[in-house]
Design goal:
Elements: H1 9-14, H2 16-25, E1 30-31, E2 51-57, E3 63-69, E4 78-81, E5 89-94, E6 97-103, E7 109-115, E8 123-124, E9 128-129, E10 140-145, E11 148-154, E12 160-166, E13 171-172, E14 185-195, E15 198-205, E16 209-217, E17 220-221, E18 225-231, E19 237-242, E20 245-251, E21 257-263, E22 268-269, E23 273-274, E24 286-291, E25 294-300, E26 306-310, E27 322-323, E28 334-336
InterPro entries: PLL-like_beta-prop (IPR058502)
Signal peptide: 1-34
Protein name: PLL-like beta propeller domain-containing protein
Amino acid sequence: MTSTRPFGRSARVLAVVVLAALAVGGPVPEQAQAACTAAAVAPAEAETAGRIDLFARGTDNALWQRYWDLGNPWTCWQTLRGDLASAPAAASHDDQVVHLSALGPDGRIKDRAYVNNQMLLGGWSMWGDLGTETFASAPAAASWGTGHYEVFALDQNKHLKHNWYRFSEQRWSGWYGWPNDTMELQGAPAAAAYAKDRLHVFARGLDNRMYQRFLTAPGVWSGWVPMGDKEFTSSPGAVSWGPTHLEVFALGADSKVWHSWFDFTAKAWTTWYVLDGAQTFKEAPAAASWAPGRLNLFALGTDNRMWQRHLTDQPGVWSAWAPMGDEQFTSGPAAASWTRQVNQ
């Protein structure tokens, strides 16, 4: 089996010989042919550095990316090539490292990583297969920092499986389900970690309600728990900016984004609330946080354009929805920030 590695600091040194050819001969991002036809609204500025990377599948089934750095406008969309059969998943497990996963046309989960340095291992790795098993959904990815990176997807029986990178052994665990798990799900899962060993995974049940399971102790998972009786029409998106915030987003029957967040004081999830605005959407949303209280939300509109909004300087107050250009996409987005490692 072929597999790629999340390039942690220790793994980078030991993988030089193996990955030298990939760094030299691997795909280099090509500038998008389509010009930036509309300015995107950047997040509100702060004193700390910030970066958000945004990904989606284009009409050519290739992976497309744009990113934002604090104090600069969003870049134009650029192609990272590839042949995807689903939306991508993205997470950062190390400073200036972004890791991607997506479903390939052969049903296998594909994986690649980007390292932001000028050394031999800098840039994008090649796509590789995470095993030979085939899946029925797009993947989800989550990390709580340099010691853990994990991918989730639904198998052909609609059951959730996961595969995590063993940093101490520099290898993937392989795909595993949960013993006696009979829960059938639909669509792609979502995952987020708010602290070390505090990882939640979310998925839509066949009854269209949202469910979650989570780590209760290192390596020990809860069973599936429903998140209320509200029904949804999309897979979820999930995000955390650290040990005081965990939030989930999904589309309701009105094609608008609804969200619920965990109240760490009350130790309970809030009810579901709709985000205002006339814009409607068609795929699972994605979110990323580059600092505490700084959250950007992205969603594919019914016009096939990417839209975003963000939390403003006023706590709990969102900006209006704004389009991110006129480019068309065929999947919901994936978003990641390498400036927010939850175990920092």
